[in-house]
Amino acid sequence: MGNMLQSRFTQKNFKLLCNVEKFIFYAVNNSLDDSNDYFQSIMDFCYADIDVEKLKVEALMIVDFYQSVIKKNQMNIKQITKISTICEILNSCEVGKEMFKEYHKLINLYLTIPVTTATAERTISTLNRLKTAIRSTMTQSRLNLCLLPHIYKEKIDKIHPRQIASKFISSSEKRQHFFDLIL
């Protein structure tokens, strides 16, 4: 599980999504210091869906909009730290959606990114291929033991068979004695 998390967070697109998320927060909290990096990430993230020039203009005004809505609705918010808060404030005022169309589009695109479903979908597909009519009588534990190597095939291919054999043999004195006799 730890390796899957590590590989997910080192993927090329993860940094891009982090920059888009930082932009979304920095725009409403008025701390756009390295905005060119963020706009480049946004162009890479959704080059055909967002007009970045309009978004740059909106980014200059959006903090005032959020502060005025917070004051008008008497919300006790000093800094916005959740996407849900951003959406709640934006949805509370129809004028905001119209004024900040590109920003609203960016939030919608960001929220529709499938973050964790790909691995689960691959696992289900693998399960369908693995559990055929002949194998439908196997127990759950055996099915799991067959499924894991099938899912992580590329990682298992990197392991040398002698490494597996030596670990198996060294796990018990009885095995060490038995395989020492054979070898």
UniProtKB/TrEMBL annotation:
Which intervals hold domain HAT C-terminal dimerisation? 95-148
Pfam families recorded = Dimer_Tnp_hAT
| InterPro entries per record | HATC_C_dom (IPR008906)
From what superkingdom does this record's organism come? Eukaryota
Q: Which GO terms describe its molecular function?
A: protein dimerization activity
Protein name as it appears in the record: HAT C-terminal dimerisation domain-containing protein
Lineage, please?
A: Eukaryota, Metazoa, Spiralia, Gnathifera, Rotifera
